[in-house]
Each structure stands twice: as structure tokens, then as C-alpha cells.
Design a protein that fits this description.
The complex is a heterodimer of chains A (541) and B (341). Chain A is of the alpha/beta class and 541 residues long. In chain A, 42% of the residues lie in helices and 16% in strands. The chains are: A alpha/beta (541), B alpha/beta (341). At the A-B interface, helix 4, helix 5, helix 7, helix 8 and helix 11 of A face helix 5 and helix 9 of B.
Chain lengths: 541, 341
């Protein structure tokens, strides 16, 4: 994002902050400080630290004071007093319920939000908040001495949203949103509003095509999920319906509209990141991680108690609390042995839990004829070596064999690797290679493992030479297609996987499959025991 | 700011709106599952429904808003209290309760009231979200990412309509009959089959890609944001009409006739699709009856079955990940065979 665009975004945000959000992405830097300082001049900013509790946001019982006072003392929540612009520190770490409360507060229009996003790699601002953020500014694109020019304090921050622009501008922005794969109508609405704010900034009464182009760059570009089609194919390729022709009573408008839409799209194309497509398909993994984090609090193996207040998902440890309070009863004036227990805030104990972090390793072994000839025993040897490791780590293991027409779960997940070893030794070989069925079966087991709260790791041993399609019919072409489709599904599920290529001669089939699965790739001929261990440990992360 | 976006002012989302209307006519159909992209206005539709539904009567002072007209569904507290103290009944809007993903078991089921226990030494029950959702809607956004222990709770309560609390020295029961509404993005995860089964109707929600429709969505949303009260007032008449239609359909439901021939067709359809168990047929016929009542028809016809079959059966087919076209295409093919139009 260029500095002028960033300045325009900040200006528009400062002009209509309520119900809107701004993401500042990047580590703390002088530019970020300058932006916050400038916005602070005209807006009532309120900074929220990462540990802000859910009950602090929405209001709740003040447990400490309730105990002291002997009656309920309510603590008002931050979100119950509208009128400020909240600044979220480490926004990428805010989890589900708190993000949902903030999103609801934004929708009511009483708050604005500035999310300081320091996420790297797979960390992102929660989707509920990102969806409501009109602007996203990448701080690393700004010069160190960047200082935004903002509307003078007092003039800024009108409560009502700006008027809608002319119909052709709305249509152009809607078309641009569709062409970029931005499906949410909310984004298009925000873009139309930003176009009007941009017009006001330039001193125009209504939005011009330039304002629309700017709005698309600011609001739509950072949400794009696909590259717009080249200019000569005006209609987007994916949606089944063609964009509607304009109403018949205004036939002359078509060219005008088309050209505005094209100009808007051109403007966006300039700022789209080149790696746009590589960022797709990560949502599943992201969501899975959020889920794992959400799970971490208050669930898992009990591990004693610690002092703390029972809130935000922490549960009171009643016995621990009584034990902590008991020695003090005499001092606290309970002499008669009749009165009720006197508790102090410091007595409260909450249960400590260690989140479960078990791994389920799922072995899917290709036992087809092409394998059986020479490599099946080597593959078995490799699995056996890995099983020993799983035993040390108390992982659960499952074993799938695929040959002939189908895949079969030879051993459902178990913590007894000895059984797996026995199963493996008895595993017969021969027949076709139903690779698609094998991958599908592994995925099913992995999904089940996730439901049990385990992190699955799929280890697929195959030579990649699929020749049985998913429906059991022979034929190399379809079999390969099916296998790749299943591999893609697996990648989208976001499960960790490792492909051990057992092909006699190393060729591209195994590697292509690993790429489709999003798996680490290891060729068996060179994979001695130590290399295997390293690969599995690395896949577990 | 107050006021919900009016149900009748929503552009598009016809299938979801119809499904929600059907389950509000006959809650026995089960819940509604809407899977689709983010930002398609699913939650707007669901909240709008709550504002549309006719208000309900509840026993005075009951924390679970028990229905005065149905004493056999009352909570243990209402049963023990003298009848007189339950009157006069209160009039309440139908509750819509959000179940957030990270909710703790205590908040969902209810738990020992800590304040009462610590400050007053009393054992009291603090109702949870299930209690608040009684006779209303329980909405779970991103239901496919819901934590497993919460799914377990929902599966049990959604089937029995009753929340049993046996923990922390508490032992009580209260009704928890709610319409479970779930939404989520199918790419992010799948639902456990047991939970899928609790949803009577399921839909694939897509954002409209028609430009004109999308422009209209923006216009209406903007008009609403600009002046909520005026916007709501403009649609008040349409809302009242639809409310009357729901009430009329509820009243007509028991008398709506289901001919044996139509029942047989529904059964044939389920057999052709190989759906598991009887629940598919039950849901299908209930939904068809609700649709007939809503249309003002006195008899359920094959057309009603045909109209609701995709939504009632989509999530009840055995999964075949590799089959082309997916569940909807399979249902269409079966419909063409068993129930040709």
C-alpha cells in the first residue's frame, strides 16, 4: 500500500470510525505510533490489553468485591459504555467469544476498532473482526517518518454513515467485489461508503470514478480471494450467472458502467499481492488452530489448583478454596463455631488443567502388487521403526492398508503399538493400487482423531502409482485424478501429513502427490531410520 | 441502537427464510443448518426471525419461561410452586440465544451460583444458555468448529428437550426445548453425524451473484443503518401479515391432512436415496405438512414433498466424497424418478 493510500484510509476512518474497524498490520514502529497519535487527537481512543477478560468487556459480577461486601457487586463492562474507539493490542491473539462480543458491539455502531495485528505466518485477526474492518494498512510499506494528515478534531467523527453514491458507482463497486471473489455484501457496502468519504475528502459532493477506484483499492483489495479476469473477459468466470444487464430503460448506461467497473478493477489490480493465490486454502488450518486455542482454557487433564478468580472459563476448585480459607477462620473472627465460613478474595482457587496434546499417527500403507514385489517389506520396516517412536511418545496409532479395490482400517486407533506391529506383519500384499480410497480412509480417521481432541499426523507410504479409481474401477487416468482430488481435500482439511515415497526409481508422481496433500516428502531409498525419525518429529511440529 | 433488520426486508436467502418459517410453525421438524460462506447475512436472517415471531406467554417469575398452556413441560420449580403464584403470565419476545464457540460447560448448562454460595452460603442454580434458549432459538455460528464437549451436551439436550443438572451438589431439571440453528463454512470442518441428525433441515447458503440483487442489499442495509426506526416502520405491515400467516399455519397444522398415497411417496423417496433410519421420513413429512399449512392448503400434496425434500434429506445421505454433483444432485435424480413433476 502506498503512503497516499494509507493516508486516505486513515482520513476516511477518522471521518467515520463508528461501526468500522482498521487493521494496522506489522510490528510496532514509528509509523504506527504516529498513526495512533494522530488518530488520538481527533478520536476518543481506548486501549485494550490482550488479557482483557470477557467479563470485563461485557460486564459481570465483581467476585472479589462481592465477597468482601457480602452482596452482589456488578462490574460494568467496557462495551456497555459506547462512544470510544477501541485499540486492540496483539489483535491476532484475541479469541472467539471476546472477538464475537467486539463484533456485535461494532454492528451496533457504538464503537470503532483499531486492531494492532502483529501476526506472522498463519496468525490473523479473528475472522469476525477482519470481516468488519474496512481498512488494512501494512505498516512495513510506510516510511519511518510517515505522518498522516487527518481532519481537524471536532469536525471529525460524525455518527451517521455517509450518503450512498450514484447508482453507477454502487454497481461498479459491486461488480468489482464479485470479480475479486469478495462475497460478503458487507464489504461492498463499506466500499460504497468509503467512496463517499473519499469524495468528501477531495471536496466533491458526490463520488467520482476515481473515488470508487480508491475505495476499491482500500476496502476490496485486501479481501480479494482471486485475481480478476483479464480485461477482455469482462464477466467473472466462476459465478454461474452472468452479471445482469442494466435495466432496459437505461440502455445507454452500459458502456459507462462497464468502463467505471474496469477502471475500478484496474486500480485494484495494481495493489494486489502477487502471492494472492498461495494464501488460499489456509483457512481450515487457521480455524483448527483457533479451535485448539479455544479448547486450551479450562479443559484437559486436571493438575491441581492455583490461586485465581473463577472467570473466563476457569472453574472454581471448591476443596482448594476451603482448604485455603480454613486456617484463617479464627483470625477472621469466627469464634463461635456457628457462623458461616468467612472467605476472602485471596482464598479463591481455580482448577488448573493441562490441555491434552496427544497425537494420533495414522499409517496408510500401500500394499498393492507393485509394492509387494519388492518394497512392501521395506515399508513395513519403516512403519515398525516409527511405531517404536509412537510408543515412547504415548501416541495413539492406527493402521490402514489399501490394495485390490478398497482401503481397509486394519487397526483402529489404539495405544498398543504391539497390536499394530502384529497387524502389520500379517498384512497381505498384491492387487491394484486404490490410492484415492487409501487417502480418503486416512482422512476419515484423522477427522475422528480431531473430534477426540487429538492432533492427527498422516503417514502415507506408497509408490504413487494409482491404478484403481475411487469407485473401484481400474484405469490409470481416473485413478490418478481421484487420488489427486482426495489429496487436495486432505490438504484443505489442514491435517499434517508425511508422504514416504517407496517407488523403485524416484520420479515426479510421488512428489506431485505430496504437493497436492500439502505433505512433507521423503523418498524411502534414502530414508534410513534416522531420517525417518527426523521427518516425523518435524511433521509433528 | 435497537431494532432488528425486518425479516420481510431481507433480499435473497429465500431457502433459509422458508426453512426458518417451517420450523417456527412446527418446532418438531428440528433445527436448521445453514452452511455457506462468511458474510452471507445468515445471522441477520436468524435475528430477524426472532423479531418477527409472535411473542409468547410465560409463567410469572419462572427463570425458564415455562409455557402456561403446557404444564407437562414445566420445570421442577414451577411444578412445586402454588398455581396462583404463576399468574398472571408474562408476555415475552421469543428468545434468540447465541452459543459462542468458546463457551464453557458451566455457561451452557448452568452451574452453582457462586455468588449465592460464597456470599450467602446458599446452594442456588444459576441458569445457563440452554435455560435462556427454552422455547426460542439457540444459534451456533461456526457450529462445525464447536468444541466436542459442547457438541455432546447439545446432542443430548436437543433430543430430549430437557436439561438435567447433576453436579456440584445440584440436582434439578428444566425444559430446554429450542430450535437449534447452526451455521458455518463447510470448508473449515464437518459436523459429527449425531449432531447433523438433530438438524431437521439443512441448506447450502450462497451469496447472490446477481449485481442488481447485491446493489439492492446494499441500499436496504444503508437505509436501515441510516434510520432504523423509519425502516422498521416501513416494513411493519408486511411483518404483521407474515406473523398472522405463521399463527394461522400453526393453528391449521393439526388439521392438515396427509393422504396415505403422499406418505407412501415420501417413504419411496427415502428408500431410493438409502437414508438412514426413520427420522428422514419423519422430518420430510413434518416439513411438507408445515409447508402445506403455511400455503393454506388443507391437504399435503406431492408438490409439498418435492419442495421440502432437498432441505430435509440433504444431510441424511450416506457420504460419498468422490461422487460427482454432491447430495443435492442425488436428491434431484431420485425426485425425478420417484416423484416426476
Amino acid at each position: 500500500m502506498m503512503a497516499e493510500d494509507a493516508a486516505a484510509a486513515l482520513h476516511c476512518f477518522a471521518a467515520a470510525p463508528f461501526g468500522n474497524a482498521l487493521i494496522l498490520h506489522g510490528p510496532p514502529c514509528p509509523a504506527r505510533d504516529a498513526i495512533l497519535a494522530a488518530l488520538g487527537n481527533s478520536l476518543p481512543l481506548r486501549r485494550l490489553p490482550l488479557h482483557t477478560g470477557w467479563d470485563r468487556l461485557t460486564g459481570g459480577t465483581d467476585i472479589g468485591r462481592s465477597i468482601t461486601a457480602g452482596r452482589m457487586v456488578r462490574q460494568p463492562g467496557i462495551l456497555e459504555a459506547p462512544g470510544s474507539v477501541l485499540v486492540l493490542a496483539s489483535a491476532e491473539r484475541w479469541d472467539g467469544p471476546r472477538a464475537a462480543s467486539l463484533a456485535a458491539a461494532l454492528d451496533d455502531g457504538g464503537f470503532g476498532l483499531i486492531a494492532l495485528d502483529e501476526g506472522v505466518a498463519d496468525e490473523h485477526v479473528p475472522a469476525a473482526l477482519a470481516e468488519r474492518a474496512a481498512f488494512r494498512i501494512a505498516l512495513d510499506s510506510l516510511a519511518e517518518d510517515f505522518v498522516p494528515a487527518l481532519p481537524a478534531p471536532g469536525l471529525a467523527a460524525s455518527a451517521a454513515p455517509p450518503a450512498l453514491p450514484e447508482p453507477d458507482i454502487i454497481t461498479a463497486l459491486v461488480q468489482a467485489a464479485l470479480a475479486l471473489g469478495v462475497w460478503s455484501p458487507r464489504a461492498a457496502l463499506m466500499a460504497t461508503r468509503v467512496a463517499m468519504l473519499a469524495a468528501a475528502r477531495a471536496g466533491r459532493a458526490t463520488a467520482s470514478p476515481e473515488d470508487a477506484a480508491l475505495a476499491a483499492r482500500l476496502v476490496l483489495a485486501h479481501r480479494a480471494t482471486r485475481m480478476p479476469a483479464p480485461e477482455d473477459e469482462a464477466s467473472p468466470p466462476e459465478p454461474p450467472e452472468q452479471p445482469d444487464p442494466p435495466p432496459p430503460d437505461e440502455p445507454d448506461d452500459r458502456d459507462g458502467q462497464g468502463s467505471i467497473a474496469d477502471r475500478v478493477l484496474d486500480a485494484v489490480r495494481v495493489v494486489l499481492p502477487p502471492d494472492l493465490l498461495q494464501n488460499q486454502g489456509k483457512t481450515a488450518r487457521k480455524a483448527g488452530q483457533a479451535q485448539a486455542r479455544a479448547r486450551a482454557r479450562g479443559h484437559g487433564r486436571p493438575a491441581g489448583s492455583r490461586p485465581g478468580l473463577p472467570r473466563d472459563g476457569l472453574r472454581l476448585d471448591l476443596i482448594g478454596t476451603l482448604r485455603a480459607a480454613a486456617p484463617w477462620q479464627r483470625l477472621r473472627g469466627r469464634h463461635d463455631g456457628m457462623g458461616r465460613l468467612r472467605l476472602a478474595r485471596d482464598d479463591l482457587r481455580v482448577r488448573r488443567t493441562i490441555p491434552r496434546s496427544a497425537t494420533a499417527t495414522i499409517f496408510a500403507v500401500d500394499a498393492s502388487g507393485s509394492q509387494a514385489l519388492n518394497r512392501l517389506n521395506e515399508a513395513k520396516g519403516a512403519v515398525e521403526h516409527l511405531l517404536a517412536q509412537c510408543y515412547i511418545r504415548r501416541d495413539s496409532v492406527a493402521l490402514i492398508g489399501f490394495r485390490g479395490h478398497t482401503a481397509e482400517t486394519l487397526l483402529p486407533p489404539t495405544r498398543a503399538p504391539a497390536r499394530a506391529r502384529a497387524c502389520l506383519a500379517l498384512m497381505p500384499g498384491g492387487g491394484g493400487t486404490p490410492l484415492a480410497a487409501g487417502i480418503a480412509c486416512a482422512r476419515t480417521l484423522a477427522e475422528q482423531a480431531v473430534r477426540r481432541g487429538e492432533a492427527p499426523l498422516i503417514v502415507l507410504l506408497t509408490d504413487g502409482k494409482a491404478n484403481i479409481a475411487a469407485d473401484g474401477s481400474p484405469g490409470r487416468g481416473r485413478a490418478r485424478e481421484d487420488a489427486l482430488r482426495e489429496a487436495n481435500l486432505l490438504r484443505e482439511s489442514g491435517f499434517d501429513s508425511l508422504l514416504i515415497d517407496t517407488a523403485q526409481r524416484r520420479d515426479t508422481e510421488g512428489e506431485a502427490l505430496a504437493r497436492a496433500m500439502g505433505a512433507r516428502y521423503l523418498a524411502l531409498p534414502r530414508a534410513d531410520a534416522a531420517a525417518l525419525s527426523r521427518a516425523v518429529s518435524a511433521s509433528r511440529g | 441502537m435497537t431494532g432488528q433488520f425486518p425479516f420481510t426486508a431481507i433480499v435473497g436467502q429465500d431457502a433459509l427464510r422458508r426453512a426458518l418459517l417451517l420450523v417456527s410453525i412446527d418446532p418438531l421438524i428440528g433445527g436448521v443448518l445453514a452452511m455457506g460462506d462468511r458474510g452471507t447475512g445468515k445471522s441477520t436472517v436468524i435475528r430477524a426471525l426472532a423479531a418477527l415471531l409472535p411473542p409468547m406467554q410465560a409463567n410469572a417469575g419462572c427463570r425458564f419461561h415455562c409455557d402456561p398452556a403446557a404444564p407437562d413441560t414445566w420445570c421442577s420449580e414451577c411444578r412445586e410452586r402454588p398455581k396462583k403464584s404463576l399468574r398472571p403470565a408474562r408476555t415475552l419476545p421469543v428468545p434468540v440465544v447465541d452459543l459462542p464457540l468458546g463457551a464453557t460447560e458451566d455457561r451452557v448448562v448452568g452451574a452453582l451460583d457462586l455468588e449465592a454460595a460464597l456470599a450467602h452460603g446458599k446452594t442456588a442454580f444459576q441458569p445457563g444458555l440452554l435455560a435462556r434458549a427454552n422455547r426460542g432459538l439457540l444459534y451456533v455460528d461456526e457450529v462445525n468448529l464447536l468444541d466436542d464437549h459442547l457438541v455432546d451436551l447439545l446432542i443430548d439436550v436437543a433430543a430430549s428437550g430437557e436439561n438435567l443438572i447433576e453436579r456440584e451438589g445440584l440436582s434439578l431439571r428444566h425444559p430446554a426445548r429450542f430450535v437449534l440453528v447452526g451455521s458455518g463454512n463447510p470448508e473449515e470442518g464437518e459436523l459429527r453425524p449425531q449432531l447433523l441428525d438433530r438438524f431437521g433441515l439443512s441448506l447450502d447458503v450462497r451469496t447472490p451473484t446477481e449485481i442488481a440483487l447485491r446493489v439492492e442489499i446494499i441500499r436496504r442495509r444503508d437505509a436501515f443503518d441510516r434510520d432504523r426506526a423509519a425502516f422498521i416502520a416501513r416494513h411493519a405491515e408486511a411483518e404483521a401479515d407474515l406473523r398472522q400467516r405463521i399463527l394461522a399455519a400453526r393453528a391449521a397444522l393439526p388439521a392438515t391432512d396427509m393422504p396415505d398415497a403422499v406418505l407412501a411417496r415420501a417413504a419411496q423417496l427415502c428408500v431410493a436415496l438409502g437414508t438412514d433410519g426413520l427420522r428422514a421420513e419423519l422430518t420430510l413429512t413434518r416439513a411438507a405438512r408445515a409447508l402445506a399449512a403455511f400455503d393454506g392448503a388443507s391437504t399435503v400434496t406431492e408438490a409439498h414433498i418435492r419442495a421440502v425434500a432437498p432441505d430435509a434429506l440433504r444431510h441424511r445421505l450416506r457420504r460419498a466424497a468422490t461422487e460427482d454433483g454432491g447430495a443435492t444432485a442425488r436428491i434431484d435424480r431420485a425426485l425425478a424418478e420417484v416423484l416426476p413433476a
